[in-house]
Amino acid sequence: MSDADRTxxxxxxxxxxxxxxxxxxxxxxxxxSFVAALPKQAHILDLGCGPGQYASWFAAQGFRVEAWDGSSxxxxxxxxxxxxxxxxxxxxxxxxEAAFDGIWANFSLLHAERSDLPDLLARIHxxxxxxxxxxxxxxxxxxxxxxxxxxxxxxxxxxxLEDLLSAAxxxxxxxxxxxxxxxxxxxxxxxxxxxxx
Length: 197
Description:
The chain has helices spanning about 5-20, 30-35, 55-60, 70-80, 115-125, 160-165, and strands at about 45, 65-70, 85-90, 100-105, 130-140, 145, 150-155, 170-180, 185-195. The protein starts with a helix and ends with a strand. It is α/β, with parallel strands linked by helices. A seven-stranded mixed beta sheet has the order 3-2-1-4-5-9-8, sandwiched between helices. The chain has a two-stranded antiparallel sheet with strand order 6-7. Helix 1 (about 5-20) packs parallel to helix 4 (about 70-80). The protein has one domain (about 5-195): 3-Layer(aba) Sandwich (Rossmann fold), CATH 3.40.50.150. A hairpin with a 5-residue loop joins strand 6 and strand 7 (about 150-155).
Protein backbone atom coordinates (compact mmCIF):
# COMPACT_ATOMS: atom_id res chain seq x y z
CA MET A 1 0.00 0.00 0.00
CA SER A 2 1.38 3.41 -1.01
CA ASP A 3 1.68 6.36 1.36
CA ALA A 4 -1.16 8.08 -0.52
CA ASP A 5 -3.33 5.00 -0.06
CA ARG A 6 -2.70 5.19 3.69
CA THR A 7 -3.38 8.94 3.85
CA UNK A 8 -6.68 9.07 1.96
CA UNK A 9 -8.67 6.91 4.44
CA UNK A 10 -7.53 9.25 7.22
CA UNK A 11 -8.94 12.21 5.33
CA UNK A 12 -12.14 10.27 4.70
CA UNK A 13 -12.49 9.67 8.45
CA UNK A 14 -11.49 13.22 9.43
CA UNK A 15 -13.38 15.12 6.69
CA UNK A 16 -15.95 16.78 8.97
CA UNK A 17 -13.37 17.72 11.61
CA UNK A 18 -11.06 19.10 8.93
CA UNK A 19 -13.90 21.14 7.39
CA UNK A 20 -14.83 22.60 10.77
CA UNK A 21 -11.23 23.48 11.59
CA UNK A 22 -10.69 25.14 8.21
CA UNK A 23 -14.00 26.97 7.93
CA UNK A 24 -11.94 30.11 8.44
CA UNK A 25 -9.93 30.86 5.31
CA UNK A 26 -6.47 31.10 6.86
CA UNK A 27 -4.82 31.77 3.50
CA UNK A 28 -7.40 34.32 2.33
CA UNK A 29 -4.75 37.02 1.64
CA UNK A 30 -2.95 34.54 -0.62
CA UNK A 31 -6.24 33.63 -2.31
CA UNK A 32 -6.90 37.31 -2.95
CA SER A 33 -3.46 37.74 -4.53
CA PHE A 34 -4.08 34.60 -6.61
CA VAL A 35 -7.37 35.82 -8.08
CA ALA A 36 -6.02 39.35 -8.58
CA ALA A 37 -3.56 37.86 -11.07
CA LEU A 38 -6.33 36.11 -13.06
CA PRO A 39 -8.56 37.38 -15.86
CA LYS A 40 -12.29 37.79 -15.20
CA GLN A 41 -14.27 34.54 -15.30
CA ALA A 42 -11.02 32.59 -15.25
CA HIS A 43 -11.05 28.79 -15.06
CA ILE A 44 -9.56 27.63 -11.72
CA LEU A 45 -8.55 24.14 -10.59
CA ASP A 46 -8.44 23.58 -6.83
CA LEU A 47 -6.07 20.59 -6.80
CA GLY A 48 -6.52 18.66 -3.56
CA CYS A 49 -9.50 20.77 -2.59
CA GLY A 50 -10.37 19.09 0.72
CA PRO A 51 -13.84 20.17 1.86
CA GLY A 52 -13.87 22.89 -0.79
CA GLN A 53 -13.71 26.06 1.27
CA TYR A 54 -11.46 27.85 -1.19
CA ALA A 55 -13.24 26.43 -4.24
CA SER A 56 -16.44 27.90 -2.81
CA TRP A 57 -14.79 31.28 -2.28
CA PHE A 58 -13.42 31.32 -5.83
CA ALA A 59 -16.88 30.49 -7.21
CA ALA A 60 -18.39 33.31 -5.16
CA GLN A 61 -15.94 35.70 -6.85
CA GLY A 62 -17.37 34.73 -10.25
CA PHE A 63 -14.75 32.23 -11.41
CA ARG A 64 -15.34 28.85 -13.06
CA VAL A 65 -14.09 26.32 -10.55
CA GLU A 66 -13.16 22.65 -10.68
CA ALA A 67 -12.35 20.98 -7.36
CA TRP A 68 -10.42 17.69 -7.37
CA ASP A 69 -9.56 15.48 -4.42
CA GLY A 70 -8.58 11.88 -3.80
CA SER A 71 -10.79 11.61 -0.70
CA SER A 72 -14.40 10.75 -1.50
CA UNK A 73 -15.62 12.14 1.83
CA UNK A 74 -13.84 15.44 1.31
CA UNK A 75 -15.28 15.61 -2.19
CA UNK A 76 -18.80 15.01 -0.86
CA UNK A 77 -18.38 18.13 1.28
CA UNK A 78 -16.88 20.11 -1.60
CA UNK A 79 -19.81 19.19 -3.85
CA UNK A 80 -22.19 20.94 -1.46
CA UNK A 81 -20.79 24.33 -2.51
CA UNK A 82 -22.64 26.06 -5.32
CA UNK A 83 -20.80 26.82 -8.54
CA UNK A 84 -18.16 24.14 -8.00
CA UNK A 85 -17.62 21.13 -10.29
CA UNK A 86 -16.02 18.23 -8.41
CA UNK A 87 -13.99 15.24 -9.52
CA UNK A 88 -12.60 12.32 -7.56
CA UNK A 89 -9.00 12.35 -8.78
CA UNK A 90 -5.40 12.00 -7.71
CA UNK A 91 -2.57 14.32 -8.64
CA UNK A 92 -1.37 12.04 -11.43
CA UNK A 93 -4.80 12.26 -13.10
CA UNK A 94 -3.90 15.80 -14.17
CA UNK A 95 -3.21 15.30 -17.88
CA UNK A 96 -4.87 18.49 -19.17
CA GLU A 97 -3.00 20.90 -21.43
CA ALA A 98 -3.53 24.70 -21.31
CA ALA A 99 -6.88 24.10 -19.60
CA PHE A 100 -6.74 26.30 -16.48
CA ASP A 101 -5.98 29.96 -15.91
CA GLY A 102 -5.11 29.23 -12.30
CA ILE A 103 -4.24 26.16 -10.23
CA TRP A 104 -4.53 26.34 -6.44
CA ALA A 105 -2.67 23.58 -4.55
CA ASN A 106 -3.06 24.62 -0.93
CA PHE A 107 -1.31 22.13 1.38
CA SER A 108 -2.09 19.21 -0.91
CA LEU A 109 1.10 18.41 -2.84
CA LEU A 110 2.95 17.84 0.46
CA HIS A 111 1.28 14.42 0.51
CA ALA A 112 3.10 13.37 -2.67
CA GLU A 113 6.38 11.47 -2.60
CA ARG A 114 9.44 13.71 -3.03
CA SER A 115 10.46 11.77 -6.15
CA ASP A 116 7.04 12.48 -7.72
CA LEU A 117 6.98 16.24 -7.21
CA PRO A 118 9.03 17.23 -10.31
CA ASP A 119 6.60 15.32 -12.54
CA LEU A 120 3.58 16.78 -10.76
CA LEU A 121 4.92 20.33 -11.15
CA ALA A 122 5.49 19.64 -14.85
CA ARG A 123 1.90 18.40 -15.15
CA ILE A 124 0.64 21.56 -13.45
CA HIS A 125 2.73 23.75 -15.77
CA UNK A 126 1.33 21.98 -18.84
CA UNK A 127 -2.23 22.27 -17.52
CA UNK A 128 -1.96 26.06 -17.18
CA UNK A 129 -2.66 28.53 -19.95
CA UNK A 130 0.44 30.48 -21.09
CA UNK A 131 -0.31 33.31 -18.65
CA UNK A 132 -1.51 30.96 -15.92
CA UNK A 133 -1.00 31.39 -12.19
CA UNK A 134 -0.06 28.70 -9.65
CA UNK A 135 -0.37 28.80 -5.85
CA UNK A 136 1.42 26.18 -3.79
CA UNK A 137 1.49 25.85 0.00
CA UNK A 138 3.76 23.37 1.78
CA UNK A 139 5.20 22.54 5.20
CA UNK A 140 8.84 23.44 5.74
CA UNK A 141 11.29 20.93 7.18
CA UNK A 142 13.33 17.90 6.23
CA UNK A 143 12.55 14.28 5.49
CA UNK A 144 9.19 12.59 5.11
CA UNK A 145 6.85 10.41 7.13
CA UNK A 146 3.53 10.18 8.96
CA UNK A 147 2.17 12.82 11.31
CA UNK A 148 0.48 12.01 14.64
CA UNK A 149 -2.72 10.83 12.94
CA UNK A 150 -0.94 8.88 10.21
CA UNK A 151 -1.04 11.25 7.24
CA UNK A 152 2.09 11.03 5.08
CA UNK A 153 3.99 14.29 4.57
CA UNK A 154 7.04 15.29 2.57
CA UNK A 155 8.81 18.33 4.00
CA UNK A 156 10.85 20.79 1.95
CA UNK A 157 13.43 23.46 2.56
CA UNK A 158 12.62 26.92 1.24
CA UNK A 159 15.47 26.97 -1.30
CA UNK A 160 14.78 23.36 -2.32
CA LEU A 161 11.16 24.17 -3.16
CA GLU A 162 12.12 27.32 -5.05
CA ASP A 163 14.64 25.32 -7.09
CA LEU A 164 12.00 22.72 -7.97
CA LEU A 165 9.60 25.43 -9.12
CA SER A 166 12.31 27.10 -11.19
CA ALA A 167 13.20 23.76 -12.82
CA ALA A 168 9.52 23.41 -13.81
CA UNK A 169 9.67 26.87 -15.46
CA UNK A 170 7.67 28.70 -12.79
CA UNK A 171 8.53 32.28 -11.88
CA UNK A 172 7.86 33.15 -8.23
CA UNK A 173 5.88 36.37 -7.74
CA UNK A 174 5.11 36.25 -4.01
CA UNK A 175 6.32 34.25 -1.02
CA UNK A 176 4.96 34.07 2.53
CA UNK A 177 6.40 32.25 5.55
CA UNK A 178 4.36 31.65 8.70
CA UNK A 179 3.76 29.28 11.60
CA UNK A 180 0.61 27.37 12.52
CA UNK A 181 -0.89 24.27 14.10
CA UNK A 182 -2.20 21.40 11.98
CA UNK A 183 -5.14 19.04 12.37
CA UNK A 184 -2.97 16.69 14.44
CA UNK A 185 -2.19 19.49 16.93
CA UNK A 186 1.46 19.82 15.92
CA UNK A 187 3.00 23.25 15.38
CA UNK A 188 4.74 23.71 12.04
CA UNK A 189 6.46 26.13 9.69
CA UNK A 190 4.68 26.84 6.41
CA UNK A 191 5.38 28.47 3.05
CA UNK A 192 3.10 29.71 0.29
CA UNK A 193 4.33 30.71 -3.16
CA UNK A 194 2.46 32.43 -5.96
CA UNK A 195 3.96 31.73 -9.36
CA UNK A 196 3.50 32.52 -13.05
CA UNK A 197 3.58 29.56 -15.37
